[in-house]
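Researcher: Re-running this chain for the archive, since the previous output was lost when a drive failed. Same request as before.
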Amino acid sequence: MLNHLIVPRTALAPALWGTTYLVTSTLLPADSPLLAGVLRALPAGMLLLLVTRTLPHGSWWWRSLVLGALNIGVFFPLLFVAAYHLPGGVAATLGAVQPLIVQTIAVRLVGERLRPSALIAGVVGLGGVALLVLQARAALDPVGIAAALGGTCSMAFGIVLSKRWATTIPPLVSTAWQLVWGGLLIVPVLLLVEGLPEQLTLTNIAGFAYLGIIGGAIAYALWFAGLRRLPTVTTAFLGFLSPLVATLLGWLVLAQQFTVGQAIGAALVLGALVSVTVRRRRPEETARPWGG
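Model: Regenerated structure tokens:
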């Protein structure tokens, strides 16, 4: 059986990311997604650097930059482009193909066996997410679709390479530098495309503080630590928790409608998660170490 603590600890990260929509819609200024991306990543990374006080060494200078770009610097802007061009349900559904992409990449890069049962679970989970968040009149925009799929592929490669490049470098150090690199990569995009707001209220500051500390430093530290110990496919499936939590919070806090179809979708998502995470690991599923 997979470690009974590492799975729920890692699952807490996408669950916390699922609160982003609620925080964004109730606490943050309107039309500032790139600012939210920078303030979610860069202050969190700087905070972790103050705690760890460790510089990358050797190949980890460029590896941390690559991972920071894939997991944050490229992923965040593409995610926000998709959010502007697509209804949230379409963007979330396209993002839910990530476990299927990760399984394909992991076969080549980390030697994890492609399991038919996991592929089936990925399709079931994708259908569950669609039932949770996809609206019947959802519009399809080519730019939005390309951005959503590009962001999904970016994070999929980030997940697999994080596993492949796992070394003795402490997870907090790796997390800190990925957040810093990722945040710095978004800054010029923010200045060129969106600009800085004229003022921020205390409510806005509280929202950004939550995203930076809870959704940034804590969530990413849990996520990257889990990536080292769990199969890449397992961590990819845990990402299904984000749209599930977002939908449930919309129902509980924002009084949004929760239909029978959404309940079925939630059950499918949970079923897919359980089928992948609650099982015995087989020796051939353990990733080959590669780093240094």
